[in-house]
Amino acid sequence: MGKKKSGASSMEAQSTESVMGRSGNGSTDTDIVIVGAGVAGAALAYTLGKDGRRVHVIERDLTEPDRIVGELLQPGGYLKLMELGLEDCVSQIDAQQVYGYALYKDGKSTKLSYPLEGFKSEVAGRSFHNGRFIQKMREKAASLSNVRLEQGTVTCLVEEMGTIKGVQYKNTNGQLVTAYAPLTIVCDGCFSNLRRSLCKPKVEIPSCFVGLILEKCELPYKNHGHVILADPSPILFYPISSTEIRCLVDVPGQRVPSISNGEMNHYLKTVIAPQIPSELLSAFMVAIKKGHIRTMTNRSMPATPQPTPGALLLGDAFNMRHPLTGGGMTVALSDIVVLRDLLRPLRDLNDAPALCKYLESFYTLRKPVASTINTLAGALYKVFCASPDPSRKEMRQACFDYLSLGGDFTNGPIALLSGLNPRPLSLGASRIIFPIIKAEGVRDMFFPASTPAYYRASVN
């Protein structure tokens, strides 16, 4: 066996190891190994399996996840879900249709509707319990005979002479197993243990989310997400079932008040509660009293591809943005569509160097959609946060006033936000947006057809 590129502990001390999926002549009975079966991994497994690939998915925990993020799918993401044949995964989970946003500032509010004219009636955003959605996609992937979904903890990538040949993992029996395949796709999420083997990540932590669930109350604007431009930073509300409303309180920086010593309760009651819309205040206070308070660190990480023969990164393991705009799942599903279309004409994945060169075009072709959503998320978070800087205060107020105009004035920005029209040239530039665009890569984002990888994909 070749050397290992370690992710978590390499478990070298174990003396026995079984090797599977590889015959004596070096061929495998698996085309693609996928690490992780979250939104990206499960959707990818179904997509590639449906195209006839033999897929082996290894997921650390196949029980239903319980998270406070990944609960809002923008309409653009729903369109990608339809394109992948996965739209039924939002049915029978009490998912709620979302038709836009309500924006609050200083006691005033405005409704921003998604520009859904011209789309089928079912096209809208969807909000739901993240775990229910993921379980539906896992079931869909596992229903294909050529997709194997297995619980196991991947410990490292297996490398031979600079090429990733598969992964080593510990199965539920405690055995160390090696799974080989011509292509390994790492989708192990925001806490990825393997991304450092495939890129040089620059992870930033702009803030944390504090999550509560409100019950027995109605949102002021039905079937809309609510964004409160609070001090110090935004507060979000959106339905996740027919009886529950998710509240996410953004706390800037890397530290949140302690839940265990009562700091969090005090902060929510004294700093946040006075800024909550009156219709939701009573349910908000009840949620604090119940004490089911969750926290989640928000991460931002530009995509920094480092093409590696035999392997690819996808999902939050590869690219993250502030979750304020709920764009993460839209980016992941869009990336899967791009990757599916690139892989479809390839019958043989065994020429690792040639495949690696060919898949460089993936990084180019994903840029316009991903960078638009990433840029908008970063820009809006900065604009929506309170600041003592007079120019930032003016920008925040100007943004609210402009969006309050409604109609054609807001259709453009909301089409970008929703993923319905993720076109970089629609973003324009400002003192806040341009530095983010620069980090994403101006040429790749605005002019993907001018990059060499684009032409390689076009002619192959």
UniProtKB/TrEMBL annotation:
It comes from the Eukaryota. GO terms for cellular component: endoplasmic reticulum; membrane. InterPro entries: FAD/NAD-bd_sf (IPR036188), Squalene_epoxidase (IPR013698), Squalene_monox (IPR040125). Pathway: Terpene metabolism; lanosterol biosynthesis; lanosterol from farnesyl diphosphate: step 2/3. Residues 181-427 form the Squalene epoxidase domain. One of its GO terms (biological process) is response to hormone. Its cofactor is FAD. It is a multi-pass membrane protein. GO terms for molecular function: flavin adenine dinucleotide binding; squalene monooxygenase activity. Its EC number is 1.14.14.17. Residues 7-18 have a biased composition (Polar residues). Keywords: FAD, Flavoprotein, Membrane, Oxidoreductase, Transmembrane, Transmembrane helix. It catalyses: squalene + reduced [NADPH--hemoprotein reductase] + O2 = (S)-2,3-epoxysqualene + oxidized [NADPH--hemoprotein reductase] + H2O + H(+). It is an enzyme of class 1 (oxidoreductase). It holds the Pfam family NAD_binding_8. Residues 1-24 are annotated as: Disordered. Its main location: membrane. Belongs to the squalene monooxygenase family. Catalyzes the stereospecific oxidation of squalene to (S)-2,3-epoxysqualene, and is considered to be a rate-limiting enzyme in steroid biosynthesis. This is Squalene monooxygenase. It comes from Acer negundo (Box elder). The lineage of its organism: Eukaryota, Viridiplantae, Streptophyta, Embryophyta, Tracheophyta.
